[in-house]
Amino acid sequence: MSEPKTVSASQDPTAPPAATASGESTPTAASGLGQGAPTAPPAPGALGESGSPAGSDSGEGVPITDGRRLKGERRRRALIEATLRVVERDGASGVTHRTVAREAGLPSTASTYYFESIDALLNEALATSTNQDADRIDALAEAPDENPHRALAALMAECVRDRGRLHAEFELCLRAARRPELRGPNRRWTESLRAFARRLTDDPLRVDLFAHAYDGLLLQGLLADEPPTVDTYEQMLRQLLPQA
C-alpha cells in the first residue's frame, strides 16, 4: 500500500472549484479544518480489498474524523458508484476518467487523482458491488426470519428487476475470471452463499449445489423476457435447499 501523498491546494480535487478565465473549473485552496495542517486524502491505489482506505469508517471500523479525509472518502465512493452506473449504461468499455467524473458530478481531475488507471477504477467497482451483495446475503443468513426461502426469493426478484445493475455486475465479474488477483471478493461472496445454505441444511453437497446455482438463476433471470417472480424463485430455492 502506498503512503498518502502530499498535494498542494491547487492539485487537490477535494477543494471547491473556482472559475478560470476560460470558464472551466480548477481546484482552489481550501481552508484548514480543526487545528494543525489539513491531511491530504490517500494517494491513488492506497485502498484495501474492500475499496476503502486503511483506517476508514468502512474499512477497519475506525471513524474518519478529519474533515478533508472524510470528504475524500465520500468522493471516492461517489466515483465508484458512478463507475457502476456508466457500466450499466454503456458497458465497461464506456468507462473513462472523464465520463466517470462527469457522472459523479465532480471535477475532471478527481477520477485520475483517486484512481491511477481505468483498471484500478473497474477493480474497485467490482470489489465494492460484490461486497455489497455479500453483505445482503449475510444479513439474510443472520436474520431471525421464519421463511428464509421467501426472503431470499424476494431479494433475487429485486435483483433481476434492476437489470442494469445486475448486468454491470456480471460484466465486471468476468474480469475476475481472467485475472486471479481479482477473485478475493468473489470468494467472500461464495462463502456468504454457503453460510445462508448452512442455515437450512447440513448436507455439504446441497450447500455446494446452492452456491453454484445461485448466480446461474440470476443470470437466467437477466436473460428472460419476463423476469421470474418471487413465487417462482421461492419454489426453486425450496428444491435446492429443502428445509429439514
Please provide a written account of the structure.
By secondary structure, the chain is mostly helical. Strands 1-2 form a two-stranded antiparallel ribbon. Helix 1 packs across helix 6, helix 4 packs across helix 6 and helix 4 packs parallel to helix 7. The protein is elongated.
Which features would summarize this protein structure in a list?
single chain, 244 residues, mainly alpha, two-stranded antiparallel sheet, 9 helices, 57% helix, 2% strand
Brief overview, please?
This protein has 244 residues and is an all-alpha fold.
What's the topology here?
Layout: E1 17-19, E2 25-27, H1 67-90, H2 97-104, H3 110-114, H4 118-142, H5 148-161, H6 163-178, H7 184-200, H8 204-223, H9 230-240
Antiparallel strand pairs: 1-2
Helix pairs in contact: 1-2, 1-4, 1-6, 4-6, 4-7, 5-8, 5-9, 7-8
The percentage of residues in β strands lies in under 5%
| Biggest β-sheet: strands ordered side by side in the sheet | 1-2
Largest sheet: 2 strands, antiparallel
What is the count of β-strands? 2
What level of helicity do the residues show?
Answer: 55-70%
Compressed to H and E, one letter per element, the order equals EEHHHHHHHHH
In whole angstroms, the N-to-C terminal distance is 47 Å
> Outline, from the CA principal axes?
elongated
Spans with pLDDT under 50 lasting ≥5 residues? 1-62
Q: Radius of gyration, Cα only, in angstroms?
A: 21 Å
Q: Which structural category do the helix and sheet elements fall into? A: mainly alpha
Name the average pLDDT.
79
Number of helices: 9
